[in-house]
Amino acid sequence: MRWIVFAFCLTCLLTDARAQDRSAVEGQFQIWLQETVWPRAKAKGVSRLTMQRAFEGVTLNWKLPDLVPPGSIAKTPQQQKQAEFGAPGRYFNANSIQGATAVGRQMARRHANFLAQVEAETGVPGRIILAIWGRESGYGQVAIRHDAFQVLGTKGFMSTRSAYFTEELIAALQIAQAGHAPPGRLKSSWAGALGQPQFMPSNVLTYAVDGNRDGRLDVWRSAEDTIASIGNFLSAYGWVAGRDWGFEVSVPAHVSCALEGPDQGRPIQDWVDMGVTRVSGKPFPKHELQGEGYLMMPAGRYGPAFIVTPNFYVLKDYNKSDLYALFVGHIGDRIQFGVQDFNTGWHNIGTLYRSDIAAMQKSLESRGHDVGGVDGLPGYKTRRSIGRWQEGKGQPPTCFPKQGMKAALTQ
């Protein structure tokens, strides 16, 4: 009985200590707001009243990912925090695809004239704008629940990217000062993204467009402003009018998956000469053949393969994930052309912790491979490094991390 009482008391003491620690950090947060954020916001034209209203009642959100409280050390997270970086096949679940396609077709009919106008002005196809709109906010139907100033304040004060989020916090205060957002608390995603396009605040200030000409940059309530803003963003990042985003292809065994990446591009005609063909059986459009194309295999040999164009990497400027860009291109094609699922299915490749992939990356780096950084995320540099390592061992390259590979790499 005495041991139970002792354990209970110890738990109480630890809980009380954590509460005191957090209370101290909350105090540091308030000092940071006044001594660091306020002077910078004031210099950008933000009033004291706007600052006070933004942070009235705001405390740190300790549930956000990638936090580094004062005095602690950042660690590589064990589990995936975003779907973009999980097993590739899970990103393309039937419900998400069918929902985005069905509603996207409705929106294509409803906004046909305005989409055509934006496409004429920016060169960005309406189907691509619709697919991004659908993915980001369900065409404006998904509830956005987080307090933007709590999220950005927390991540600006104590996250692995504090400088970046502090800049975004200042931008959010500028948005509030200008009165662009609806009245009330400014809402965001858990990462601080705003409105139907899910722009970070600095992107709202830079790329938001008054599509309906009502004098406001209202990407929260206006479909026209949302459509025009997405088109403006992609155009500003270099969307090439007249080119597609990419094509699903069949890659013969003699063409290595280690040829993947935007730094290994070649004219699409060269890929054709190597034996790469479209899975549809159709030839590549003639106007694409002399344009540069890039091999993209998001699951290595365990899923569909693509020849993508520079426009694919413009989509990645919207969201850094290969899978996000692929989802957007695919949904856009389904909306306009009625294409079905990818010809090649996604294999069950199992689940790895990010720490497992990070260990593989570290080992590959020690062997001289450029994996793009030890971050636990299997990007194209990690995928092709795995393929090159496999080729060096005389194995057929598969270019994707799997269970069992960690032991072979780290032994």
Q: Over all CA atoms, what is the radius of gyration?
A: 24 Å
Query: What helical percentage do the residues reach?
Result: 40-55%
Largest sheet: 5 strands, antiparallel
Mean pLDDT: 92
Instruction: Please tally the β strands and state the result.
Output: 7
Question: What is the number of helical segments per DSSP (H or I, 4+ residues)?
Answer: 16
Q: Write down the overall geometry.
A: globular
GO molecular function: peptidoglycan lytic transglycosylase activity
Pfam family, one: SLT_2
Organism: Ruegeria profundi
InterPro entries: Lysozyme-like_dom_sf, MltB-like, MltB_2, PGBD-like_sf, SLT_2
Q: Tags for this entry?
A:
two-stranded antiparallel ribbon, 411 residues, 5-stranded antiparallel sheet, 7 strands, mainly alpha
Walk me through what this model shows.
This is Transglycosylase SLT domain-containing protein. It is a single chain. By secondary structure, the protein is mainly alpha-helical. Among the domains are: 246-308, no CATH class; 354-410, no CATH class. The chain has helices at 2-43, 48-55, 88-91, 94-110, 112-122, 126-137, 148-157, 162-178, 201-207, 223-236, 268-273, 310-318, 322-337, 354-366, 380-392, 405-410; strands at 146-147, 187-188, 246-250, 266-267, 277-278, 292-296, 305-308. A five-stranded antiparallel beta sheet has the order 4-6-7-3-5. Strands 1-2 form a two-stranded antiparallel ribbon. Strand 6 and strand 7 form a beta hairpin. Helix 4 (94-110) packs across helix 13. The protein starts with a helix and ends with a helix.
